[in-house]
Amino acid sequence: MSETAQLKIGDKTYDLPVIEGTEGEKAIDISKLRDQSGYVTLDIGYKNTGATKSAITFLDGEVGILKYRGYSIEQLAENSSFIEVAYLLIYGNLPTAEQLQAFEFEISHHTLVHEDMKKFFDGFPSGSHPMGQLSSLIGALAAFNPASLKPGLTAEEVNLEIIKLIAKMSTIVSWIYKKSLGHPVIYPRNKLDYVTNFMYMTFGQRTEDTEIDPVVVSAMNKLLILHADHEQNCSTSTVRIVGSSDANLYASISAGISALWGPLHGGANQAVVEMLQQIKEDGGDTDKWIAKAKDKNDPFRLMGFGHRVYKNFDPRAKIIKKACDDILEKLGINDETLEIAKKLEEVALNDPYFVERKLYPNVDFYSGIIYTALGFPTDMFTVLFALGRLPGWIAQWKEMKANKEPIGRPRQVYVGETNREYTDIKKR
Length: 428
Ligand code: SDX
Hints:
Oligomer: single chain
Distance between the termini: 63 Å
Number of domains: 2
Bound molecules: s-citryldethia Coenzyme A
Number of helices: 18
């Protein structure tokens, strides 16, 4: 007998079905509530509201568990590659060797970007933020792939757009960086694997013999895997709701990039490093800045701390923190901001303000330190987050369409003026 919830309103009682997920999560299905009772629910910020049933990513914020398609993030970060994880998220299973080779071959043969896309770069003012550029350029891909706008695309046609997008995003991200330096862009080399090719286009010289340090490639793979999906976060929910209007894949992902830009979301990795630099220039007094973060009258927040879902350690932060130590040691870099970050973490984790509110380091707290060690400037960090999150966005968009979910259209409670008569402007 399946469980039901009962809602009593006045002298009426409504039975609401309860559904249970494969990991034991439970939800009250209110999809018929308004028809039955005339009531809607209100949950600003959707803190208690499930938007869908998904088989892609599971996270348990209380315990600090994160799994993609049932595989733990720890195992994938340790053993897999970013492109293999992308396959897992999008198609649901780890690929065989043949499947992975075919996937990588397909992608490597779509990495070129239409030469006319370069004209967009000439239009951006120098120093314009890479996230604004990325959102525009990914949206513009629809113009260069008119077939993607055809209604009723077949599964094969959708898959081709997915392959193109994964391939071209890495080229576009590297070109954004090169253009920011005023350097000529570097074209992809199809015999390189996805991440090596990306690092080659970003940091390589124009000569064919540029070697990319395997230590750097390994760290980049791990970072991209850790960012690949995170269930119904702000930007993923944006991708799903834009896609639910039957907007094309490029428009949906472009919207997700814009949502990720916000400093409360993906933009936090840039804000963390700027915060650490600020504390370093201010003399490194972490107690002073912790006090500011706790002060309700001070707008300063400890960026990279806290999470809507994780009320325990973000498992990704643990992995990145260790990777930080490893990569800095291997590259022989002594980064003072890492020491400041560790001190902030130590102080915060023993401070009642943070403990009571269950505020722990999240994925963004340490990632910027590694990106800096790998040679990226601060304003490229969130673009790298987007590159990592792309397969997750695609998988979620694909699932929403496969489930034939209706167009997303939340309700509201109106609290504005009621009836008013129009008056002539002379009489106002
Ligand atoms: C990402 O959702 C995802 O999965 C996102 C993400 C993903 O992979 O997609 O994990 C990526 O976005 C990680 C989060 C990156 N953002 C930051 O690091 C920005 C700093 N953190 C916050 O602003 C905040 O913690 C949020 C936005 C992450 C979560 O905010 P919530 O859930 O809306 O919680 P809240 O703002 O209501 O805070 C609850 C309390 C408040 O204090 P009280 O009003 O109860 O007294 O905690 C306080 C907040 O003031 N608080 C902080 C704080 N975060 C929360 N106080 C100081 N510093 C902070 N960082």
